[in-house]
Amino acid sequence: MATSDMAIAGAGKTWLGHPRGLYLLFFAEMWERFSYYGMRAILIFYLTKHFLFGDEQAYLLYGAYTSLVYITPVIGGYLADRYLGPRKAVFAGGIFIAFGHFLIAVTEGPGGQDPLFLNGFYLALASIIVGTGFLKANISVLVGELYPRDDTRRDPAYSIFYMGINMGGMLGPIVCGLLGERWGWSWGFGAAGVGMLLGLVMFVWLKPWLLGQGEPPEPKALREPAAAGLTREWAIYVGAALGVVAIWLVIRYAELLGYALLVFSALTVAYIVWRAVAVLSPVDRDRMFAALFLIALNPLFWGLFEQTGSSLNIFTDRHVDRAILGWEVPASLFQSVNSVFIILLAPLFALLWTLLDRRRLEPSSPAKFGIGLVLCGAGFLVLVAGAKMAGASLTPVIFVFLIYLLHTMAELCFSPVGLSAMTRLSVSSMVGLVMGTWFLAMAAGNFIAGLIARATGGGEDGSVTQVLDVYGKIGWFAIIVGALVLLVSPYVKRMMHLGEGAPAQQ
Predict the structure, then answer these.
(1) Measured distance CA(428)–CA(424) in Å, rounded
(2) What dihedral do alpha carbons 326, 34, 123, 103 form, nearest 10°?
(3) DSSP label at 407?
(4) What is the pTM of this model?
(5) Are the C-beta atoms of residues 418 and 370 closer than 8 Å to each other?
(6) I need a labelling partner for 165 at 20 to 30 A (CA). Which of 333, 347, 403, 419 fits?
(7) Pairing relation of β-strands 327-328 and 323-324?
């Protein structure tokens, strides 16, 4: 064990066997996810009911926003690694996010697409996007820095941290959804901002719990002059503010932005293929092609799964009988169901994979992807069946719970499995690029989700026929693709060369 690792292991008090800093990061991330998912739960309704966007325009803007949220962490991670360190990056990100939420709240306006208030809204979205870029990846890095590299508590620590994510994802839509839909939009977005501020206050107040981890790699370099009389640190913050302005200018062109993202994603994959063919050994080349196979499925899965915040949210609002125990539940509150199911099912899935592994029956990573796609498609078909059974009446709410249940099971076969596979299959010199491509594919999936949602038409005219037709088609498509993935999964598994040692340094 290195000297620095020994210092980490021996320093500070622990709670339940873990450093107190883990619980600080748990709550900081919980409040950040509270703000993100709370805002996301009411965003599509804010666009359609307050700004009076048509469904198609709202879906594309929503897709552009969620796509950019997955792209900017690549830049934020680089700036933290090279200059700021994760702690300063997380704090800066929280400031930008809180500012964005409060700006939405104070620029609500009287309704309709008044240019002043609409531009204030675009500026707020841009600030949240930049802030998420600083915060999203770096707070996860801080968790790892609390433990030595060979500490067996690392995996359980991330499991605890993951629960914080889903606690925020559960509470945010409930609080912000109720306030936004019942009291007023500014209350919902303001609550999201308050949640982020609470996380920041804890992060600053309890900074000693981090045991000095996450600091800049070269603190003196941050204080050196960079440009226009600014230190390097402040030059980064000013550059981030200029980034907000740049995103503010382009986010209104949602469709063009999305297609540019797809082209950039394709070029990135082409570069990885070239590196694999030209540089890597045959075994590592096979592994890289296996990783690219999994990455190629990413946009499809997230394009389907991310109907949650857009078309499925609108469907729940307009075409579902939401009365439960005599109370009509606001549609935005259903955004918390996925997180509830994650909290309940994640330990069961972990136990299931362990039991199957002991019997040598655990599905391979490609097979789990196939299962995930089948479950995702089945969720849509179950909802379509329920809506058709209801006929001219509203769809029973049980079918909304069923689609969330099946999609959560699909997510557990896809998301954590994919992240693990990317680190396992990448050569050490390309792991950052491959992981970045994984998130880039997720961003592309969010844009595709906007295109799929636009195709549903949202049922603006009161007819649900087009929505169900699209859901039926994408449901069967996902099942067919999932079945094909299951068929080829043994070949992809062989390309992973799991029993032949770690990927080489290239």
Answers:
(1) 10
(2) 70
(3) H
(4) 0.85
(5) no
(6) 403
(7) antiparallel
Chain mean pLDDT for the chain: 87
Asked whether the beta carbons of 475 and 384 are under 8 A apart, the reply is yes
The pLDDT of residue 500 is above 90: no
Q: Rounded to whole angstroms, how far apart are CA atoms 334 and 313?
A: 8
How many other C-beta atoms lie within 10 A of the C-beta of residue 301? 26
β-strand 18-19 against 14-15: which pairing, if any?
A: antiparallel
> Which amino acid, 230?
L
The DSSP line for 414-467 is HHHHHHHHHHHHS-TTTHHHHHHHHHHHHHHHHHHHHHHHHHH-TTTTS--HHH
Q: Which amino acid is at 451?
A: L
State pLDDT tens for residues 150-168.
676 766 777 778 788 889 9
Instruction: Identify the residue whose tokens are 């709202």.
Output: 58
Mean pLDDT for the stretch of residues 441-457:
91
Sign of CA dihedral 70, 72, 74, 79: negative
Longest C-alpha distance within the chain, in Å?
70
Contacts of 224 (CB under 8 A, 6+ apart): 231, 232
Sign of CA dihedral 111, 113, 114, 120: positive
**Does residue 94 contact residue 200 with C-beta atoms inside 8 Å?**
yes
Report residue 134 as tokens.
């600083």
Cβ-based neighbour number of residue 459 at 10 Å? 19
Task: Give start and end residues of each alpha helix (H) in 146-281.
Answer: 154-178, 185-205, 219-222, 232-250, 254-278
Q: How far apart are CA 497 and CA 506, in angstroms?
A: 17
The two structure tokens encoding residue 158? 């991330």
Classify each residue of 15-36 as buried b or exposed e, where b means 16 or more C-beta atoms within 10 Å of its C-beta.
eeebbbbbbbbbbbbbbbbbbb
d(CA 24, CA 207): 8
Comparing CA positions, the residue from 283, 293, 252, 281 lying closest to residue 437 is 293
Rounded to 10°, the helix 465-496/311-319 angle is 140
